[in-house]
Amino acid sequence: MTFDNEKIGELIYQKWYSFAAKILMTNGKEYQLEPRGFWESTIELKEGEAILLEFKMGWKGIVIKTYFDNEEKHFLLKLKGLLSNKFVLLDDNNEELMVAETDFKWSKLNFDYTIETTQNFDNFTNEKLLLLSVLHCINYYMTVIVAAA
Prior knowledge:
The chain is α+β, with helices and mostly antiparallel strands and about 150 residues long. It contains 2 helices and 12 strands; from the N terminus they run ββββββββββββαα.
């Protein structure tokens, strides 16, 4: 993934349609995304054994909790409209922090993303790690919705 034409990291899946993945940042740090629970309904982002973020599907979208710098924050990732290809990340105050537009590429059998962030998002600690985690959330959402159809 690039941000302002600078590579920030990679989201690497262990296998097709797997919820397990790893994030490899350009600074060399590696994080694991691991499903938890009987139905793999919760995904945790870990650095070693420390849980930095977790998310799960809710009625309104994907509920995300972060634990960066020992501070718990809550976010909601949801579709911008019923038949939209845009996802929006909201904070506790329902303030829009990020919009990600998906574009399916048949030649790659994969999605490309166009992402716009706000200044508030850009001011977060670990914003690049959060950004890659949100992409995993979107992929999770798409997989769950396709499987349910």
